[in-house]
Specification:
single chain, 358 residues, Rossmann fold, alpha+beta
Amino acid sequence: MKLRSLDLNQFRCFSQLRVPLPGGIVIFHGDNAQGKTSILEAICVMLRLQSPRTSTLAECARFHTDSFAIGGQIEGDESFQLRLQFRESGRKLIVDGEVQKRIGDYLRHSALVVWMANDDLALVRGGGEGRRKYLDFMASQLFPDYRPALKAYEKALRSRNFLLKRDASPKWQQIDAYTKILHHEGRIITGRRRELVASLDPLASTAQFEISGRVSEDLQLLYECGSGQNDDLMAELGGRRDEEFNKRRTVAGPHRDDLELKLNGMAASKFASEGQQRTIALALKLAQTKLFIQKRDEPPILLIDDVFGELDPARRNHLMATWPVDSQKIITTTNLDWLDEKFVDATRLLVKNGAIEL
């Protein structure tokens, strides 16, 4: 699938923006704080209905507004015109002028997306939340049952935590009603995450070697389940009531999962060099790209935010050599100094003050 056009209205710093997009490499360049990343974010929001920069879409609306709209034409075996209209009171998902009643119906007409950014280093150095989001973004695109299960789990978790904090003496009968929901939806989440990590592990290991060029760098991905023995969250939470009473929050479940990253058998966050950590972050995103092709036989759209300027030529060349040729690549950068002959056919668009200068 290729994105052939983008139309923004009241999104971030853009009052309005219309830009055609070719199917190959597109480079948005310009100074910081001009709107480059917001263009990539808008593409991700339109195609996947979620932002890699914020947990709530309301924050994407332009300052002093409470709504925005994003449209674009997707081309593959068929062509579709997608449009997302968002306001705090609700949203409309439109395909070829027809409002879609279910999110799944809209997403079926969309494209797979891989988001790569300079701050992906937090996947290695940061806490578990970033790694969970990495898994969630992938799983939501691969498994139709994942997104509904995750949304239901998060809603029940908020309610359960509220009840744990509300009363001096927790009302466990009420709390356990939500525990059952967490257990049911959590099994779907943990099962899909475990399946995902098992598929990603060999792909990430290969990607680490391809980008670094070093056989000695053995990357391993391990799924750490937060739901207790045999993923039995009901039993796990039932046995930890005293802890929950003291902490006033849900102490186990998929929201406590993590993805352990090991390089040569040691924790990558502690023992890998900065160069190795950057390579690991790239390897995770390359593994995601390969998994999409493996599972869906479809190259994803690559949204690459200010990555290349931070890479040395060797790693940049290794990364580009592993990219799927058929993937559309949309790139942002603050400078073009790193461009070489591999980008001679790329479309270059200057972003300045929330506008495109051709």
